[in-house]
Amino acid sequence: MKHPVSVQGAHADHEAMAGRGSAQGPAWDEGSLTAMVDFMNTLNEEPATSGEMLDGRAWPTRW
């Protein structure tokens, strides 16, 4: 059985990760962004290795 998983974020979240903070949140520094990417890669490693994860992509829904 396949289950799609969708993670959403606001435009302000994208801007913060790109280093542009706002009233909704501070800008992320390079270390924080690297730590998040490393965490996501570790989180995806087990299901990808076992064959449970078929695909993983980032598709922007609006910009």
Word description of this protein:
It is a single chain. By secondary structure, the chain is mainly alpha-helical. 44% of the residues lie in helices and 0% in strands. It contains two helices and no strands. The chain has helices spanning 11-17, 30-50. The longest helix is centred in the middle third of the chain and has 21 residues, at 30-50. The chain is elongated. The model has no long low-confidence stretch (mean pLDDT 83).
State the main characteristics.
mainly alpha, 44% helix, single chain, 63 residues
The poorly predicted ranges are none
| Number of β-strand runs | 0
Radius of gyration: 14 Å
Please report which band the strand proportion falls in: under 5%, 5-15%, 15-25%, 25-35%, 35-45% or over 45%: under 5%
The structure class reads mainly alpha
